[in-house]
TrEMBL record:
Gene3D superfamilies: 1.10.530.10. It comes from Streptomyces cellostaticus. Residues 61-126 form the Transglycosylase SLT domain. Transmembrane segments: none annotated. It comes from the Bacteria. SUPFAM superfamilies: Lysozyme-like (SSF53955). This is Transglycosylase SLT domain-containing protein. The lineage of its organism: Bacteria, Bacillati, Actinomycetota, Actinomycetes, Kitasatosporales.
Length: 137
């Protein structure tokens, strides 16, 4: 091991930077538990949506809307309007039509959101087109 490498990792700040760089290079992330939990919850909701929406174009459109609306957070709440969940239903209780577990189950929220997009716009892709033109759907 070279002396310069040892000097680089001698300070804790530099050691953390080196570890973060090594982790990033290896495709890993160093995050705090709450951020990791949110990321895990979001990726889980995305996986559920992908299974429910197998068409790539429709999934991508649905995903873009959800990313803008809630960041894939199933408990996202708009403090000014009260809109709730992945798809920001207003009121959130509308999602009870898809299941009584609408407050906590991303699959129920995805089902309701997909049904809403299909009935109101014809498809998630058409809902995304509307969202792009108006900033809401």
């Amino acid at each position: 091991m070279s002396v310069s490498f040892i000097r680089r990792i001698a300070s804790p700040k530099k050691a953390l930077t080196a570890a973060a760089l090594a982790a990033a290079t290896a495709g890993m992330a160093l995050t705090a538990a709450p951020a990791q939990a949110a990321t895990t919850e979001a990726s889980s909701a995305q996986a559920i949506a992908h299974k429910m929406i197998p068409d790539a174009a429709q999934f991508n459109a649905f995903s873009k809307i959800v990313e803008h609306e809630s960041g894939w957070n199933p408990s996202a709440t708009n403090s000014s309007s009260g809109a709730y969940g992945l798809v920001q239903a207003l009121p959130g209780s509308k999602m009870s039509a898809a299941g009584s577990d609408w407050k906590t189950n991303p699959a129920t929220q995805i089902k309701w959101g997909l049904d809403y997009m299909n009935s109101r716009y014809g498809s998630p892709a058409q809902a995304w087109s509307f969202w792009q033109a108006n900033g809401w759907y």
